[in-house]
Amino acid sequence: MNEERYGYRVRQALNHGLKDISPASSRRLEAARHLALSRQKQAAPELVLASQGASTAIGFGSDRPGGQPHPYLRQALAVAALLLGMWIAFYWHSVQYVTELEEVDSALLSDDLPPEAFLDNDFFEWLKDDSSED
Hints:
Blueprint: H1 2-17, H2 23-58, H3 73-109, H4 121-133
């Protein structure tokens, strides 16, 4: 809602400034705007063709006739990279978790446990569960 209000104020300020522009300048600005819009519409197809050429130059294989790369090659590589990244993150997290558990277990076994560990609610629950089994 705040963005709409800000946009409205900017529009009012710009419209207020139109009074100070001469009619000749206004016509030149309008012509420049139309020229820029027509060039933007013409440049859009060239961007698509340029991006396809860049993918071939980067080294994505062109196994199709005409040198065009397979349309799903980029997507398949992106999905593979995402899955690899997720697997690496999961593996790293599990190694960190096991390391933390290892430190606590070794502290418990060597009686070097800090007093803060005895204030942990999970530790009391573990003690209750362990004592009920005896």
